[in-house]
């Protein structure tokens, strides 16, 4: 089996959609020999900040010498980003061999009337690969929710981490923030410990009550005191317990994610679960990478990519733009999924963005550029429709070079994944030409 054939096998399951529930993946994992039971986990759920929190935690654990597995979703550019070891994507050979060994089980279960979804299978592959590679610890990001998310088949983790909770996936998780919080808190288990980011008071009550019910210690990011020294497009510098830390992720929201990570490390050290030194925290934070989260791709002209796609994420994006680009004319290249709260998100950006270029996203859930243009036209005077994201970027980039504007790519991680390699290549070539002349 080739790598391309392995990917085809995985993606052939996409048609079965996303269906909450653990029965199917439990059956599959049992046939695999329950690889998840051979691993230790830090389990992360939340609406926003999960990816950055996972990136920081994984980076610190690697710096501390632990063989660290990482499972994230969605990927940005390469499918293998979803399954990493020591912050390096698994090789094509590793993934192909894993599919070759396990896909016959998918076919066998299908004959028995048990249909496995793509996310369930990818999650099972992650357990299989990380167990086979004998990872010391796995940083495990939930896909959707928590309670019924297929990552939640694990035994009590070393720690459950709840990042900021807001309204998203309301059709599946519930139409109130309380219902969503109850789903997210489903990853909190007895005989474990838990950490939470700063939350809405309604959410915090549910998290605290869950911790009491499960009889587990609960640490909060609010218990972590940091002194912000400097914030810039290339990251933030802050002091924590006398440590001088540089975080190469920009935005006030990333400081909150860092506090959540530090609360997690603190409680794991306090309970003598992990051995991590202060210098390893500094080193790990400095190496944290999370593409498409207010990511600076070019400094002259300024090009920023952000995958925020719900009101909470858009709010954080909005704050960052106002903080770092206060006097800039902003051209936004925007594509979104139709099942997101598009109207609320666009309305929040009114007064922050100056010109909107709507583009298609290669995803069946995406809103068409024409329909997105109609929605944007209610709030913005300058809205243009493009047939490709690449063409939109070319036009925006040349305009930014001419006028000193800034370009932001926003609205969807899927859009970010599609266009990021093109932008990096164009910016790199442009810089080479500039240096030459």
Offer a quick outline of the entry.
The protein is α/β, with parallel strands linked by helices and about 425 residues long.
- What average pLDDT do the residues reach? 93
Sheet-strand content, in percent, reads 15-25%
Helix share bin: 40-55%
Number of strands: 17
| Outline | globular
Instruction: State Rg.
Output: 22 Å
**Helix count, DSSP H or I runs of 4 or more residues:** 15
Strand line-up across the major sheet: 4-3-2-5-1-6-7-8
Q: Please give the largest β-sheet.
A: 8 strands, mixed
User: How far do the termini sit from each other?
Assistant: 48 Å
Low-confidence blocks of residues: 433-437
User: Based on helices, strands and strand pairing, what is the structural class?
Assistant: alpha/beta
List keywords for this structure.
6-stranded mixed sheet, 8-stranded mixed sheet, single chain, alpha/beta, 437 residues
Descriptive report:
Strands 4-3-2-5-1-6-7-8 form an 8-stranded mixed beta sheet, sandwiched between helices. The chain has a 6-stranded mixed beta sheet with strand order 12-13-17-14-15-16. Helix content is 44%, strand content 17%. The longest helix has 24 residues, at 413-436. It is an alpha/beta fold and 437 residues long. It starts with a helix and ends with a helix. Strand 10 and strand 11 form a beta hairpin. Helix 3 crosses helix 9 (252-270) and helix 11 runs parallel beside helix 12.
């Amino acid at each position: 089996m080739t790598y391309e054939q392995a990917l085809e096998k995985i993606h052939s399951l996409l048609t079965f959609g996303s269906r909450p529930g653990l029965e199917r993946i439990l059956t599959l994992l049992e046939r695999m020999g329950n690889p998840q039971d051979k691993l230790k986990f830090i389990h992360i759920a939340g609406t926003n900040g999960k990816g950055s929190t996972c990136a920081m935690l994984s980076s610190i654990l690697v710096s501390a010498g632990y063989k660290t597995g990482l499972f994230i979703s969605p990927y940005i550019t390469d499918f293998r980003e979803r399954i990493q070891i020591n912050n390096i994507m698994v090789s094509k050979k590793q993934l192909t061999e894993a599919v070759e060994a396990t896909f016959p089980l998918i076919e066998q279960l299908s004959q028995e009337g048990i249909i496995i979804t793509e996310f369930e299978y990818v999650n099972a592959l992650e357990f299989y690969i990380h167990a086979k590679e004998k990872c010391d610890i796995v940083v495990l990001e939930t896909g959707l929710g928590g309670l019924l998310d297929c990552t939640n088949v694990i035994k009590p983790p070393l720690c459950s981490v709840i990042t900021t909770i807001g309204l998203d996936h309301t059709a599946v998780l519930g139409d109130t923030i309380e219902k969503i919080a109850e789903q997210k808190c489903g990853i909190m288990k007895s005989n474990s410990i838990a950490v939470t980011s700063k939350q809405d008071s309604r959410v915090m009550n549910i998290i605290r009550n869950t911790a009491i019910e499960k009889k587990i210690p609960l640490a909060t990011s609010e218990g972590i005191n940091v002194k912000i020294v400097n914030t810039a497009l290339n990251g933030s510098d802050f002091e924590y317990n006398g440590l001088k830390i540089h975080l190469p992720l920009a935005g006030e929201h990333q400081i909150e994610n860092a506090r959540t990570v530090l609360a997690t490390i603190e409680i794991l050290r306090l309970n003598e679960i992990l051995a991590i030194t202060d210098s390893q925290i500094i080193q790990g934070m400095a190496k944290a990478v999370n593409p498409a989260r207010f990511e600076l791709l070019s400094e002259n002209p300024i090009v920023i990519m952000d995958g925020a796609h719900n009101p909470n994420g858009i709010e954080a994006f909005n704050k960052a733009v106002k903080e770092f680009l206060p006097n800039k004319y902003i051209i936004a290249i925007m594509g979104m999924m139709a099942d997101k709260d598009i109207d609320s998100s666009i309305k929040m950006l009114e007064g922050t963005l100056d010109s909107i270029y709507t583009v298609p996203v290669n995803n069946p859930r995406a809103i068409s550029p024409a329909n997105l243009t109609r929605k944007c036209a209610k709030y913005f005077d300058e809205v243009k429709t493009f047939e490709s994201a690449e063409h939109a970027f070319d036009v925006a980039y040349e305009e930014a070079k001419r006028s000193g504007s800034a370009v932001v790519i926003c609205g969807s991680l899927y859009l970010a994944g599609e266009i990021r390699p093109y932008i990096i290549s164009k910016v790199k070539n442009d810089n080479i030409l500039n240096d030459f002349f």
